[in-house]
């Protein structure tokens, strides 16, 4: 018996200066644009003034190269508008993908004004 894929969904919550997006199901070539549009839409001029975006991957079931590309696009846009990106509740397969592609440190490192120039500070809340 073939089990149908877990349906993709994004649940967005906003509290104070934090935008949280819960990603459920498969983040792939069919769904990655939805994640980028959702986050970028909330960070666009005229939107709420968020300082942090938390992507919660506790219900992520799969990610492919397009999903990884979406994470890089979200990170790039967040950084361009001065917003810190956090990747929360990363399942093992996501952690492996980020490690194997060399993007783990890039996506989970924040640069602070207290750090010496060029010395990124690792995200303490990665999880």
TrEMBL record:
CDD domains: STAS_anti-anti-sigma_factors (cd07043). The lineage of its organism: Bacteria, Bacillati, Actinomycetota, Actinomycetes, Kitasatosporales. Residues 8-124 form the STAS domain. Pfam families: STAS_2. This is STAS domain-containing protein.
């Amino acid at each position: 018996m073939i089990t149908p894929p877990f349906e993709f969904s994004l649940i967005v919550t906003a509290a104070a200066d934090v935008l949280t997006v819960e990603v459920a199901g498969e983040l792939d070539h069919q769904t990655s644009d939805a994640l980028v549009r959702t986050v970028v839409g909330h960070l666009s001029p005229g939107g709420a003034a968020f300082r942090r975006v938390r992507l919660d991957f506790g219900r992520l079931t799969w990610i492919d190269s397009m999903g990884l590309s979406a994470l890089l696009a979200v990170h790039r846009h967040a950084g361009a508008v001065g917003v810190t990106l956090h990747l929360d509740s990363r399942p093992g397969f996501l952690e492996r993908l980020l490690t194997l592609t060399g993007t783990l440190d890039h996506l989970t490192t924040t640069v602070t004004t207290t750090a010496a120039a060029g010395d990124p500070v690792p995200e303490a809340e990665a999880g």
